[in-house]
Every structure is written in C-alpha cells, then in structure tokens.
Amino acid sequence: MIPTSTTRAGRPRRVAVLSVHTSPLEQPGTGDAGGMNVYVLQTALRIAQRGTEVEIFTRATSSAAPPVVQAAPGVLVRNVVAGPFEGLDKNELPAQLCAFTAGVLRAEARQEQGYYDLVHSHYWLSGQVGWLARDRWRVPLVHTAHTLARVKNAALAEGDPPEPKVREIGEQQVVDEADRLVANTPAEAEQLVRLYGAEGSRVDTIAPGVDLDRFRPGDRAASRARLGIAPDETVLTFVGRIQPLKAPDVLLRAAAELRARTPGHRLRVLVVGGPSGSGLGQPAALVGLAQSLGITDVVTFLPPQPPAELVHVYRASDVVAVPSHSESFGLVALEAQACGTPVVAADVGGLGVAVADGVTGLLVGSHRTADWADALARLTDAPVLRERLAAAAPGHAAGFSWDRTADALLETYARATMPVRSPAPVRPRSLRQLRRTPGAQPGAQQPG
Ligand code: UDP
C-alpha cells in the first residue's frame, strides 16, 4: 500500500493535477484546447468545493502568464516554464517533458514534505510526468487518458496522419504504471483492458459532465435574434475544434444534399470553432469546401465562443451535429441536449452514451453524405419528432453533471490509496513492476 497523508475516509487534502499540453484557463474550441480543458477545470472547481485543494500544473505558453494563478478558492493553476512559450506543437512536447517534470518537482520541493497526497494526470504526456512525481513523492497516480492512440488510429479520417509511435509507447507505459485509470465510458474501460492490457480492477468508469447551471433551455427566439438568425431558418450546427477527426465536412456535404433535395427550405449551417490541425483542420479549407458545394450563402463560421455565448448557439439551433470519426465522449453533445437541442451524432466512442438514440437524438452508423442527409432530414422535415427529442434532451443531459463526476473522482482517489492491484503480470514491463518483484533491483537481470 502506498503511504499517503490523506484525511477523512481516504480523501486527499491536496491533489496535483497535471495537464501538460493545454491550460484549463484557455478558451476551448481551438488548437489543442477542447473538452479536456473543460473537464480539468470543472472537476477541479467541484473537488475544491468538497474540501480537497487542487493545484493544476500546465506548460506556460505566454511570457505574460504569471507562475501561479488562483482560478477559484482552492484551485491554483501553476504555469511551468518548459521550452519556448509559443510555436511548439503537441507532437514536439515529448522533448520538453524533462523540463516540465523538473518544474513540477521543484514546485513541490518548495513546500513542506508530503504537500500533495495524490497525482492525477490527464492525457499521456502528463502521465509520463505523473509517473515520476508519483515515485518521487510516494503518492498514488490516477490517470485519465481522454483519448487513446490505438483507438484513434483505427478510425482516422481520410488523409489524417496517424498518432505517432512515441505516443503509443508512452501511453502504454502510463497505463502500466498508473495506480488507477479513469475511463469516460464502459467501452473505453474495455479498450484499456483489451488493447493496453490493464487489469479491469484498476479501471474506474466515470462519465464526464455538463455545467447544468450554464447550459439549460431558454428563449430560442432571443438567442436567434442575438445571432442574427431568422425565425424561419432551419439551423444545423457544428461546435468544436475544426479538425479532420471531428468531420465538420460531413455536415457541410449533408447540408448541400438537403438543400438539393428541398430547395424551398431556408437552411442555415453554423460552424463554431477554431483551427486545430492541417488540411480540413483549417477553416479556410472548409470555406473552400462550402464554395465547391455551392452553399457559401448558408454557411456561417463563428470563431471559438465562450460558454456564455455558446449557450445561445445551442438554443438557436434546430439540430447540433457531431459527425466525429472518433470521440472519447463528446461534451458538445451533452451541452446541446442540456439546452434542449437534439443531436445527430456519429455512432462512435462515447457518443452512444452521450446521446440516447431515438430519444434525445439520432446516431448515424456511417459518415456517408446520404446517411447524414437522411438523419438530418428526419428531424428537419418532421417537427413532431424533433420536438419530441428536444423535450427529452435536457432530462437525459441532467443525468451527467460535473458534481457527479467530481464525487466519483474523489471515490477513485480514495480507492487509489488502497491495495487493490492484482498480482503483478508475469512479464514485468517497467522499472516499477521490476521493483515489485521480490529481490529484484532496477537494472538487475531477471532470472531466465
Ligand atoms: N467549446 C467552447 N467554445 C467553442 C467550441 C467548443 O467552449 O467555440 C467547448 C465546448 O463547450 C466543449 C469543448 O469545447 O465543452 C469540446 O469538448 P468535446 O468533448 O465536444 O470535444 P474535444 O475538444 O474534447 O474533442
């Protein structure tokens, strides 16, 4: 059992949360800032409200960023200088992990001994740092992958480069090393076991949430007026980072087909979000696609919107489309439903959990234009069905709250302090596992 200084029922006093590649204080919906940023901030706020302090370590991406920012009572964001502030792609960050880890360890060394009771890493880059911090501080490591390279690589969009080998290897190491793993959905838990060899007893499935105070049904006409959308327009919306994996092109193609099928229909397509990647990850490429499809007059591009504005986008929409090729959960789908807007989503990853098929939205089993046009038309041509799904959507979303996520994470933290790991695998994969083998020393030869 790992000795910790946890208080009440295994609840840590203070947790170090690692989010190397993206800051929870960034505006999500562009670059590398997306659902993970929202997840890290929203859970930190609620964990702190429950009496556990949270300190989030992230890489400083601006010389203007102060070393420490208080995001809320009990929540600090520590901006660690590791490499140049700007111009580093996520794929270049493995080379900065040593510098980042040094920053994390030094921050801890300035505090009294036993300052952090637990490390929670998000995404594999942070897991690499958490692994060392865990060994150094002798506290448990909880890891959330958010996405998995092997799953992503099996569902790439056309022309999308695969996730690099270095990530697959690094991800495997972190899965091997973590004391507990958090999966967003039962399917992701199964993937951790089947594709990465994690013991099922080490994995907790915890659904992400939605800010139910922010995202709720409201005055649709007022939201439309705010966005300059006419009352009789049929609004189909994409919200998220513009990247091939998110497949906003699928919505544009389907919209073009819908328009060809029912030319009398006043269609409006909203695409909300910023660039994240190359090719169709550039809004300019999407503008080009809209031109070639002949629908530029009905497509409106909006830059990334803060939640206070996004709520009007969801309320103003008839349907929110989530056509992703791969999606570990899909917060946008939950947020739209919480606002009373049905979702048409690709039947991939966590979207089958986020959307209740036939009840609050529709799941589409392919990315073919005709299938998407059919699914969208089922809602836009049949107001009765659309209204039925819209009415059920907020109730479904209410089942997912950040409060529930935070409570479940605190249970995982408590469990991480208990000796629940199954016996070590026959073939040790890591120094830590070697150390667990009686009599073995790091670097010592295993008996043949
Ligand atoms: N988002 C935002 N403004 C935007 C676009 C997206 O705040 O203009 C947020 C959105 O509200 C959601 C997150 O970014 O919380 C995207 O999360 P999701 O799980 O849908 O996708 P991910 O980015 O994790 O792939």
From TrEMBL:
<dbReference type="InterPro" id="IPR001296">
    <property type="entry name" value="Glyco_trans_1"/>
</dbReference>
<feature type="binding site">
    <location>
        <position position="241"/>
    </location>
    <ligand>
        <name>UDP-N-acetyl-alpha-D-glucosamine</name>
    </ligand>
</feature>
<dbReference type="Pfam" id="PF00534">
    <property type="entry name" value="Glycos_transf_1"/>
</dbReference>
<comment type="similarity">
    <text>Belongs to the glycosyltransferase group 1 family. MshA subfamily.</text>
</comment>
<feature type="binding site">
    <location>
        <position position="167"/>
    </location>
    <ligand>
        <name>1D-myo-inositol 3-phosphate</name>
    </ligand>
</feature>
<protein>
    <recommendedName>
        <fullName>D-inositol-3-phosphate glycosyltransferase</fullName>
        <ecNumber>2.4.1.250</ecNumber>
    </recommendedName>
</protein>
<feature type="binding site">
    <location>
        <position position="21"/>
    </location>
    <ligand>
        <name>1D-myo-inositol 3-phosphate</name>
    </ligand>
</feature>
<keyword id="KW-0460">Magnesium</keyword>
<feature type="binding site">
    <location>
        <position position="147"/>
    </location>
    <ligand>
        <name>1D-myo-inositol 3-phosphate</name>
    </ligand>
</feature>
<feature type="binding site">
    <location>
        <begin position="27"/>
        <end position="28"/>
    </location>
    <ligand>
        <name>UDP-N-acetyl-alpha-D-glucosamine</name>
    </ligand>
</feature>
<keyword id="KW-0328">Glycosyltransferase</keyword>
<comment type="subunit">
    <text>Homodimer.</text>
</comment>
<comment type="function">
    <text>Catalyzes the transfer of a N-acetyl-glucosamine moiety to 1D-myo-inositol 3-phosphate to produce 1D-myo-inositol 2-acetamido-2-deoxy-glucopyranoside 3-phosphate in the mycothiol biosynthesis pathway.</text>
</comment>
<feature type="binding site">
    <location>
        <position position="246"/>
    </location>
    <ligand>
        <name>UDP-N-acetyl-alpha-D-glucosamine</name>
    </ligand>
</feature>
<feature type="binding site">
    <location>
        <position position="317"/>
    </location>
    <ligand>
        <name>Mg(2+)</name>
    </ligand>
</feature>
<feature type="binding site">
    <location>
        <position position="35"/>
    </location>
    <ligand>
        <name>UDP-N-acetyl-alpha-D-glucosamine</name>
    </ligand>
</feature>
<feature type="domain" description="Glycosyl transferase family 1">
    <location>
        <begin position="220"/>
        <end position="393"/>
    </location>
</feature>
<keyword id="KW-0808">Transferase</keyword>
<feature type="region of interest" description="Disordered">
    <location>
        <begin position="420"/>
        <end position="448"/>
    </location>
</feature>
<dbReference type="Pfam" id="PF13579">
    <property type="entry name" value="Glyco_trans_4_4"/>
</dbReference>
<feature type="binding site">
    <location>
        <position position="335"/>
    </location>
    <ligand>
        <name>UDP-N-acetyl-alpha-D-glucosamine</name>
    </ligand>
</feature>
<feature type="binding site">
    <location>
        <position position="123"/>
    </location>
    <ligand>
        <name>1D-myo-inositol 3-phosphate</name>
    </ligand>
</feature>
<feature type="binding site">
    <location>
        <position position="315"/>
    </location>
    <ligand>
        <name>Mg(2+)</name>
    </ligand>
</feature>
<feature type="binding site">
    <location>
        <position position="314"/>
    </location>
    <ligand>
        <name>Mg(2+)</name>
    </ligand>
</feature>
<feature type="binding site">
    <location>
        <begin position="32"/>
        <end position="37"/>
    </location>
    <ligand>
        <name>1D-myo-inositol 3-phosphate</name>
    </ligand>
</feature>
<keyword id="KW-0479">Metal-binding</keyword>
<feature type="binding site">
    <location>
        <position position="305"/>
    </location>
    <ligand>
        <name>UDP-N-acetyl-alpha-D-glucosamine</name>
    </ligand>
</feature>
<dbReference type="InterPro" id="IPR017814">
    <property type="entry name" value="Mycothiol_biosynthesis_MshA"/>
</dbReference>
<dbReference type="GO" id="GO:0102710">
    <property type="term" value="F:D-inositol-3-phosphate glycosyltransferase activity"/>
</dbReference>
<feature type="binding site">
    <location>
        <position position="90"/>
    </location>
    <ligand>
        <name>1D-myo-inositol 3-phosphate</name>
    </ligand>
</feature>
<dbReference type="InterPro" id="IPR028098">
    <property type="entry name" value="Glyco_trans_4-like_N"/>
</dbReference>
<dbReference type="InterPro" id="IPR050194">
    <property type="entry name" value="Glycosyltransferase_grp1"/>
</dbReference>
<feature type="binding site">
    <location>
        <position position="327"/>
    </location>
    <ligand>
        <name>UDP-N-acetyl-alpha-D-glucosamine</name>
    </ligand>
</feature>
<feature type="binding site">
    <location>
        <position position="341"/>
    </location>
    <ligand>
        <name>Mg(2+)</name>
    </ligand>
</feature>
<feature type="domain" description="Glycosyltransferase subfamily 4-like N-terminal">
    <location>
        <begin position="34"/>
        <end position="209"/>
    </location>
</feature>
